[in-house]
Amino acid sequence: MNTPHVVVVMGVAGTGKTTIGPLLAARSGVPYAEGDDFHPRANIDKMTAGTPLTDDDRWPWLDAIGAWAHERAGRGGVVSCSALKRSYRDRLRAAAPGVVFVHLTGDRALIEDRMAHRQGHFMPTALLDSQFATLQPLERDEAGAAVDVAGSPEEITERAAAALDALS
Predict the structure, then answer these.
(1) What digits encode the pLDDT tens for the residues 49-84?
(2) What Cα–Cα distance (Å) separates residue 70 from each residue in 47, 94, 126, 166?
(3) C-alpha to C-alpha distance for 37 and 114, rounded to whole angstroms
């Protein structure tokens, strides 16, 4: 895979965005940015306390990710971002029109199990229901592909790379 696109690895918490994103970036030879690093401290505090973010909480975060994606336009990059709603993806596309999405999808039980076993992350499993309730999958007119998260990180990355190659 060799693409100048900026790829947003999206999905609910626990799908493996932070695992698959760097693997996909390394495979592509482009930089990776961790979407969680763009959150203001207040957002992290809310999520740590088990409080779902509002759209107003998310706009500055999405704008910061969009600015990073805009800077990488034509040079490529991979960034993780839940991008759960169409309006969030529209906001990212407004900042970086060429962005494409890899939507990591999977069985809720598998995702919850993975969340329960990860260490040092601020997102509690209690917020998973709100994530699924908010999720609006990619629509036909959105550049991107859904990729199942069953299997090893390498298998998931291979499926993501193949899906991105098919978009080119």
Answers:
(1) 878 789 999 999 999 999 999 999 999 999 999 999
(2) 27, 9, 33, 23
(3) 21
Beta strand segments in 62-113, E: 77-80, 100-105
Considering the entire predicted model, what is its pTM? 0.89
Single-letter amino acid, residue 7: V
Strands laid side by side in the 100-105 sheet: 32-33, 77-80, 6-10, 100-105, 144-148
Question: Are residues 68 and 79 in contact, defined by beta-carbon separation less than 8 angstroms?
Answer: yes
Q: Cβ(2)–Cβ(99) under 8 Å? A: no
Question: How much is the pLDDT for 122?
Answer: 47
Q: What is the DSSP letter of 53?
A: P
